[in-house]
Specification:
The protein has helices at about 40-50, 75-90, and strands spanning about 20-25, 30-35, 95-110, 110-120, 125-130. The protein is of the alpha+beta class. The strands form two sheets. The chain has a three-stranded antiparallel sheet. Strand 4 and strand 5 form a beta hairpin. The N and C termini lie far apart (about 65 Å).
């Protein structure tokens, strides 16, 4: 029997803000070492996003990761535009990131280096991505 007399139409559901507290990943030692929060947690999340190839791993949402492939042989103008767009699109998926600005893209042989500022609710920091083109 289906219960009667209740309704969901008058209720509103607000999404709860997720905590920033997370495990500190010590990449050099391959260990988890303590906890981090706020800006340090955002920095770690940015590194994880930029080092995960988008669409490659089924465990991640299609919105997670950075598309580093597909720019080989493209002109520098296309690489500049796409590099900036792809970095911004990847990082803006994290609710703690409010803006990605101050892009500087330099070419060194077959490598493009993008330096940019990540602005989050906990502060801002500079980040760099290197891509073979």
């Amino acid at each position: 029997m289906i219960p009667t007399g209740s309704s969901l139409s008058n209720q509103s559901f607000a999404g709860a803000e997720q905590p920033s507290l997370t495990w500190r990943l010590d990449v050099e030692r391959g260990k988890v070492s303590g906890m981090i929060d706020n800006l340090e947690a955002v920095k770690q999340a940015v590194l994880a996003i930029l080092n995960t190839e988008r669409f490659q791993y089924l465990i991640y949402s299609p919105n997670y990761g950075f598309e580093s492939r597909g720019m080989l042989g493209k002109s520098r103008l296309v690489v500049q535009s796409e590099f900036k767009r792809r970095i911004t699109e990847a990082l803006m998926q994290d609710d703690r990131v409010s803006e990605v600005t101050d892009f500087a893209i330099a070419f060194e042989g077959d490598t493009a280096v993008a330096a940019f500022t990540v602005i989050s609710e906990y502060g801002s920091f500079r980040q760099e991505v290197i891509l073979n083109v």
